[in-house]
Every structure is written in C-alpha cells, then in structure tokens.
Write a structure and sequence with these properties.
The complex is a heterodimer of chains A (about 290) and B (about 400). By secondary structure, chain A is mainly α. In chain A, about 85% of the residues lie in helices and about 0% in strands. Chain A is built from 15 helices and no strands. The longest helix of chain A is centred in the middle third of the chain and has 31 residues. The radius of gyration of chain A is 23 Å and the shape is globular. Chain A starts with 7 loop residues before the first helix and ends with a helix. With about 400 residues, chain B is an alpha/beta fold. In chain B, strand 9 and strand 10 form a beta hairpin. Classes of the chains: A mainly alpha (about 290), B alpha/beta (about 400). At the A-B interface, helix 11 and helix 12 of A face helix 4, strand 6, helix 5 and helix 7 of B.
Chain lengths: ~290, ~400
C-alpha cells in the first residue's frame, strides 16, 4: 500500500485532536442558563403575558363574531372579494372543528410577528446605517435561517422548559430574519440623490429617517413582515413539539398515530390560515392607486 | 463684471477630494506633482477634485463645465459637504463650511443654500406641494404657513394648481420646476444646480434655460451651475470654469473661453463655437490702418501708408474725432505737388459703428465696397478701424494657431 509510508496520524485522524466543540457549547449553555436566570425569567414573564393577552383577545369572542370581524378587516384592507375569501376560509376552519386550535396558532404567529417587527425593524435600520454592524449581523441571520431548528430547540427548552414560551422563541428566531434583512435592504435602496436632496434642505438624521428613508422603504419592509409571518406559520408544527399547542398538535398526532385524516385536517387549516394572513398583509402594503 | 469688487458669496480655495484608501499619502503625492493616473496606480485612490479654486460673486451665474468624470459633480457636492472634502477651504457667505459642526451645517443648508439635482430627486412618496414645503416642514413651520408659501413658489415656477399631484404624474420639465421651487422656498442666497437640465428634451431644456435667465433677473442669486453642455454654459454663464481630470483648467467669461482658450483642451472644446457670436467690433480692429491728424504733412502720411501697406488712411482732428478717409493714391499724388498738409486732400465719408456691437453685424456693411468702418465711442472719439482683412483675421485668430 502506498499509504503505508505515511505516519499513523495522517491516516486516521487522532481522537485527541478532535475539537470538543459540543462540550464547550454545553458548558456555555449551562453558564448562560445559570447566570442569566433573572433575565430569562423576566423575559419569560413578558412573553407569557403578551402571548396570554393575544390568546385571550382571540378567544374571548365566539367564533361567529370573530369571523364577522375578520370579514370586516379583509373588506377594509382589500375590498369585498378579500373580505368574502377571508370569511369562507375561517368558516371552513370552524366547520372542520379546528376553531379553538386555530386561534391558539394564530395567537402564536401574531405575537411572533409582533416581536419580529419590534426587534427586527430597528435592527434593520441600524444595519443600514452602520456597515460594521451589517457585516456582523448578516452571517448571524444566515445561521438563524439555515440552522436546523431542532438544534436551538434544545437550549431554548433547557432555559424555559416545555411550553408556549420556548415555542414562541423558536418561532421568533426562525422567522425574524426576513424583517431585518428587508428593512436593511429597503433603506439602502433609497436613491442616493433623494437622500442628498433631503440633506441639502437641512434635514437632521432623524428627519431623514422618518420623513424619507422609512416611508420609501415601507413596501420592502412590509414584504419582509409578510415573509416573517409566513415563516412563523411554517414553524407551527415544529413548535408544537415543544408545547406550542394549536393546529400543529393535530398534525403531529396524525403523524404519530398514522392517522392520515387527522394530519390532513390540521394541515389544511394551517394552509388556510397562511393564505388568509398572506393576503391580508400583502394587501395592507400595496398602496391604493 | 462690475461686481467683482464686492465680497464673494462663495469662495472655494484649494479644494481637494480624494476617494478611496490611503487618502493622506495620495494627497502628499498630489502635492508632489504626481498625476491622477500615477496616484491611482500607486495607492489605489481616485482623485475626484484637485486644487480647485474660484470665487462666485453675488448675483453671478458661475458655470462649472466639464465632461463626465471631470469632477464637477463631486465639486458641487463638496460645497455643502454632501461629500466631505479632503482638503481646502470653502467659504459661503463669510462662513467656513469645512469647519462647521453638524448643527451649523444643518442651519447653513436650511437658510443659505438650495440645490437642484440632475434627475430631480423629488420625494416620490410626497405630493408636489409636500415636496416644495419640505424645507419648511423640517424647520417646524406650521402646515398652513408652509402650504401657503409652497403654493406661492409653485406659482412662481408656473405650476400653480399642481400641488396635489405626485411627482411621477408630471413631465420631466415640470418635475424640475418642482425641484427648483423646493430649493427656492428657503430663499437661499446661493443656488447650486447640478446639471439641472441635462435630463430634459432639447426643446424643454432650451425653455428652461430661458426661464432661468428670466428668473435670475428677478431673483439675483449667486448660482453655481454644473453642466457638460458648452452651449448651455455659454448661454447662461457670467463666468465659466472649465474642469478636466479634476482640475480647473480655465476660468473666464464666455467670450474669454471662446476667444482665448488657455490650452489645447479648452481650444478643442470651443473649436466648433461660432466665434462671431462672441467677437465684438472692438476685437476686429486692424492693427495696421494709419490714423493721422489732418494737420500732419503729407510726407508723414505717405510714410505711414508705405509702412502699413494700407490702401487708405483715416484723418482725425486734434481731439481724436473722425474727419474722414483719404485714399493712398490721393496721398501719392499730393506728395508730388510739394509739402502740403492732409487737410488739403480729398476726404471721403466713412462708415461708423459702435465698438460694442457684434463683429458679425459689421460684415454686411463691409461687403458693399470694402470700405473700412471706423469705431466711435459714446463721445464720438475714434476707438479703432476695422477693415475687411482685419475682420477676417479676427475670426481665424488664436484658436487655430497651433
């Protein structure tokens, strides 16, 4: 054998040379969990409160009232056809017996989207202004979008234990990147000479941001929010593995018990919700001509 | 150019802008006399503007003309620090812009300077009225007041009643009027115009140029006007600075630029300009037409005629006023008759003209009989004499000498 002239360590990678990354991360996670105890519990209570409120709001009214409200919202945003479409979709969810579960899922998605807007838009603005921050955050966003979500489900569960809060966080991590990216992109896309015009008239940085950059970036930012909501919905099934509840549970049970019918019903309801939310957010962005 | 005694509104001195890395080293190389290309090779930095100096006086339209890449757009942006200058000073209305902090700079941009852009740079999400009112809005002026004023300025640029449209609904020429109104609403003494008409159709462009001339007659701003169009520069400019490769090559009145280009670059630029549009009668004065007092002896006159090879001479009185023209053959004939003075010779009436009319206007009057034309100033004193050969000579003058 030609390889026999090589020393052993070039043939088989020596086990003592393996970087113990996994134990480092475990140690780090332990430290983060211990040291950050107060922070985590504070965060958990805030999230629990927000989510609880959202749930309460969505479930306080009977299904019939909710449908009427959604039809009105749909009509206001996108005209009669969107209103009717929204109503029919929700009626189908109710008819499939999934209403309560759908509302739980909807609350989770809406809160995740809300968090994405509150955190993602300012972060995107900062990234557009500071190139160094842009360079740091971009790979992090890539990581958040490509890292299999199960990988961060584990530490999240370790910190918050099973329940809706870790599910919400996992959903947020997975779905926030588009809002950040597109806010950054939208602001960067504002034409240079328009900015110069604003500056030449004596705008302050804040005036430039609020009166020129953000309004011009708004369609792009809203496209990001729309994607964020869609991605949050895509996380529903995975989130239900760690206790999110809602429609994802139906799908999970369908898979676990080989109950094809049950799985499909849950899946169809998720799709209906997705379509409704997508149309509503998209219509909200398109300015009336 | 009578205003050159007053304080300049804009005074740019030794302005340098270097883009890219290793700016300090590049600047040193520049000072050592390295060229733009050498510096690009040595440091990778690009020299945008090098050592530009000029003054703009109140009510003057000052043109900076150059081809793309000559640094003219960079230059105008440096004036209000939309681009940070690398070195040099910029004084606007007596204040050094290069030393200003952010607040002062904001204040300066709000009240002293307005800018108009090549592609209009209107705010697409705002109505025309809100575009024009923007400058007042950011100063916290009430809606009613700023709208009233914005209407007024829209009216002034001929767009009254268009306030509620979006900029996109307007034609290019109209959009640029909005841009102009937006820049004017803060009533700045200095107006920066970065190729404002370049993006317009030729016909509209001409209209806008005429209108700017009209408006300037009323507004009396100090205008720094950037263009790559020589015709535009010659038409609008009180003075013109020609830029090439980041440097100001020549500064002068349109006439100076056309008739006395300082180097081949400028000469090539202006070679197709009709020099007749800029030459006045004064420029066509012939050097070798003898002027003699009528009390001078014929012998002197003959000598002058022989020296100059001129077919005639011009007789004057003791006060340098025109008496008339005498032909050389009459002088020659008189010479044989013994010593007499010029006043005894036949005198012919001469064409006269003001020295300030265009040289081209002399041409038709001259062609009839090749008579010389005597140029008289306001008090009827002789400024000089133009004849056919001097007129032609003035046309083919310096620009074709290589």
């Amino acid at each position: 054998m030609i390889f026999s002239i090589l020393p052993d360590f070039l043939i088989e990678y020596p086990s003592q040379w393996i970087i113990p990354l996994s134990s480092w991360i475990e140690d780090a996670t332990d430290i983060i969990i211990e040291r950050g105890d107060l922070l985590w519990s504070l965060m958990a209570s805030v999230l629990r409160f927000t989510l609880g409120e959202a749930n309460a709001i969505l479930s306080i009214l009977p299904w019939s009232f909710m449908i009427v409200i959604f039809v009105i919202i749909g009509t206001l945003i996108g005209g009669r056809s969107l209103g009717i479409g929204t109503g029919l979709g929700l009626l189908l969810i109710a008819a499939l017996g999934m209403w309560d579960l759908a509302m739980i899922t909807l609350a989770l998605v809406l809160v995740a989207a809300f968090l994405s807007i509150v955190i993602g838009i300012p972060l995107g603005i900062l990234m557009s202004r500071y190139e160094s921050l842009n360079q740091i955050i971009r790979p992090v966003l890539d990581l958040m979008q490509t890292l299999p979500s199960f990988v961060y489900l584990i530490p999240v569960v370790m910190i918050f234990s099973i329940g809706r809060i870790p599910a919400l966080l996992a959903t947020f991590i997975y779905s926030v990147p588009p809002t950040i990216r597109l806010t950054n992109l939208g602001i960067r896309q504002v034409p240079e000479d328009v900015l110069e015009a604003g500056l030449s008239l004596g705008s302050s940085r804040l005036q430039l941001l609020t009166k020129i950059q953000l309004p011009l970036a708004l369609p792009t930012i809203m496209a990001g929010v729309n994607q964020t909501v869609m991605m949050a919905l895509a996380m529903v099934v995975i989130a239900s593995m760690i206790g999110a509840g809602g429609l994802g549970v139906e799908v999970l049970r369908g898979v676990g018990q080989l109950d094809v019918g049950r799985g499909f019903v849950g899946g169809i309801c998720i799709v209906i919700l997705a379509i409704i939310i997508d149309r509503l957010t998209q219509e909200a962005v398109t300015p009336p001509e | 150019m009578g205003e050159s005694k007053s304080e300049p509104s804009v005074s740019v001195n030794g302005l340098v802008k270097i883009f890219g890395r290793r700016v300090k080293r590049s600047l040193k190389f520049l000072r050592d006399g390295k060229t733009k290309d050498e510096i690009q090779k040595m440091t990778g930095a690009t020299v945008g503007v090098y050592d530009a100096s000029f003054d703009i006086y109140p009510e003057e339209t000052f043109i900076v003309m150059g081809l793309s890449g000559s640094g003219k757009s960079t230059l105008v942006r440096c004036v209000i620090r939309l681009i940070e200058p690398t070195a040099g000073t910029i004084i606007l209305n007596g204040q050094d812009v290069t030393k200003m902090g952010e607040r002062e700079l904001m204040a300066l941009r709000r009240k002293d300077v307005g800018m108009v852009f090549q592609h209009f740079a209107l705010f697409p999400h705002r109505t025309v009225l809100d575009n024009v009112a923007y400058g007042l809005e950011i100063q916290g002026i009430s809606k009613r007041e700023r709208y009233t004023k914005a209407e007024e300025y829209l009216e002034q640029v001929g767009l009254g009643g268009w306030g509620h449209y979006r900029p996109k609904a307007l034609s290019g020429g109209m959009q640029q009027r909005v841009g102009l109104a937006r820049a004017l609403i803060q009533d700045p003494a200095i107006l920066l115009m970065d190729e404002p008409f370049s993006a317009l159709d030729p016909l509209i462009r001409k209209d806008m140029q005429d209108e700017l001339v009209d408006m300037q007659r009323k507004m009396r701003k100090s205008i720094l006007f950037i263009t790559h169009d020589l015709d535009e520069a010659l038409r609008l400019g009180d003075r013109i600075a020609i830029m090439n490769e980041g440097q100001v090559v020549q500064i002068g009145t349109p006439k100076e630029i056309v008739t006395e280009p300082v180097n081949d670059y400028v000469a090539e630029f202006v070679q197709n300009v009709d020099r007749f549009d800029f030459l006045t009668a004064k420029d066509a004065i012939g050097p070798n037409i003898p002027l003699l007092r009528q009390d001078q002896p014929v012998a002197d006159a003959w000598k002058a005629i022989e020296d100059s090879q001129s077919p005639y001479l011009v007789q004057t009185d003791g006060d340098n006023r025109l008496v008339g023209i005498t032909y050389s053959h009459d002088v020659k004939a008189a010479l044989q008759n013994g010593p007499v003075n010029l006043d005894q010779l036949p005198v012919h009436e001469s064409e006269v003209a003001s020295p300030n009319i265009l040289a081209s206007d002399l041409l038709p009057r001259m062609s009839a009989n090749y008579q010389p034309i005597v140029l008289l100033d306001d008090s009827r004193r002789i400024v000089g004499v133009v004849d056919a050969s001097s007129l032609v000579a003035s046309l083919v003058d310096s620009s074709d000498e290589d």
